[in-house]
Amino acid sequence: MTKAVSRATGPAWSGADALADSFPLSLKQPPIDRLRPDDPPLDVLAVFVEKRARSWGGVAVPLSGGVTGALCVLLVLSLGFGGWLLAVRAGAVACSGFLCSVATLGGHLVPTLVLAGVCAGSLAGAMPMTRGLTRANGPQLAVIVAAALCGVFALAGAVALLLGALLALGLAFGLFVAFVDRF
Predict the structure, then answer these.
(1) What phi, psi does 62 have (nearest 5°)?
(2) How far apart are CA 112 and CA 118, in angstroms?
(3) What mean pLDDT do residues 61-70 have?
(4) What is the Rg, in whole angstroms, of the alpha carbon atoms belonging to the chain?
């Protein structure tokens, strides 16, 4: 005997089994409308923190182009200044008087040399780990900031001399303009 099957109650579409197999297993299960009393309470936040969370210090963030450029300039200046300080310490270059005293932070040659060396060494050491000082995570950024502070302190005397010279040149130019304007 043959069965007449209507479209409404007929057999499933032939591709329905293939479509059902493509769904994730969680969608094939019945919905959870209540918790069983024998299940222990689940601390979702604790599980997330334990399994998924990463500290922000481990995430490398990009450094701006200006910061990278300033750090590279600081590295080059610290290397040059450290070389000059080594030459002064070896006696190959004479250094005396007020200008030398300001450049070496009050005649403290060795601490200034150490600061310049720490800056140059730390920045040069951080370069390969930070993709050329373009990306840094928390600990790398701490090393970069400490190196930059050492470099700034080491170069403070030389920068003070340069600013003083620029101020003197600006004053001389202003006096020259005032003198020429009068006549």
Answers:
(1) -75, 145
(2) 10
(3) 94
(4) 35
How far is the C-alpha of 146 from the C-alpha of 175, rounded, in Å? 42
What is the pLDDT, as a whole number, of residue 162?
Answer: 94
66: left (phi over 0), alpha (psi -120 to 50) or beta: alpha
d(CA 141, CA 69): 15
Locate 120 and state its tokens: 């140059």
* pLDDT over 70 at 39, yes or no: no
pLDDT band at 14 (very low <50, low <70, confident <90, very high): low
Q: Which alpha helices (H) appear in the chain, and where do they start and end?
A: 16-21, 25-28, 44-51, 65-90, 97-103, 109-129, 138-182
Every domain of the chain and the residues it spans: 66-182
Instruction: Write 88-93 long-range contacts (CB < 8 A, 24+).
Output: 89/113
Distances (CA, A) of 116 to 67, 111, 122: 19, 9, 10
Higher pLDDT: 164 or 57? It is 164
- Whole-model pTM over 0.85: no
pLDDT at residue 37 in the model = 66
Specify the DSSP class assigned to residue 56.
G
